[in-house]
Amino acid sequence: MPTRFRLVRVTTRTIQVRERASVDLPRSAEATFDFLWDPVSSFTISDSVDVAAALPGRRGLGEIQAVVERTPAGRVGVLHEVIEHEPGRRAVTRGLVGVCPTWSALSLEPLGPGSCRLTQEFWADLPAGVQAGMDRQLSAEYRRRLDLMMRRLGEWAGRQAPV
């Protein structure tokens, strides 16, 4: 029986995948930040979350947040460390597990009393040697997550009385 070979194209350099989305909300930046800071807000933003918690220890800068999500392949655990923290305005996390370095940034800009613009950004550095096209798959996944998050936050803010 002849041996069959399959060519797999791989990348030859690091590729950064970066996606961002914004939504204007009828809530103050502080109230929105406080809501999102609590990992339990993950249940509002996504239907696939089983567990969301901050690990005991540090609060704010250095805090570790854990989320367990359901995926088609089974449950996946994700850990994030807070590496930048400006209460009520901005937080940046870096992923502690995964095949490549990942980050996320949440920024809130007050637009007036009781309103703000929320911007969420996700990015990753795919190393050289990953299968070609992985950047497009990751970009599509980030877009899907951002679209869902923006829609869900709009629904959440619309149900709440302005603060």
UniProtKB/TrEMBL annotation:
Xref: InterPro entries: START-like_dom_sf
Gene3D superfamilies found in the cross-reference section: 3.30.530.20
Entry superkingdom: Bacteria
Entry protein name: SRPBCC family protein
Lineage: Bacteria, Bacillati, Actinomycetota, Actinomycetes, Micromonosporales
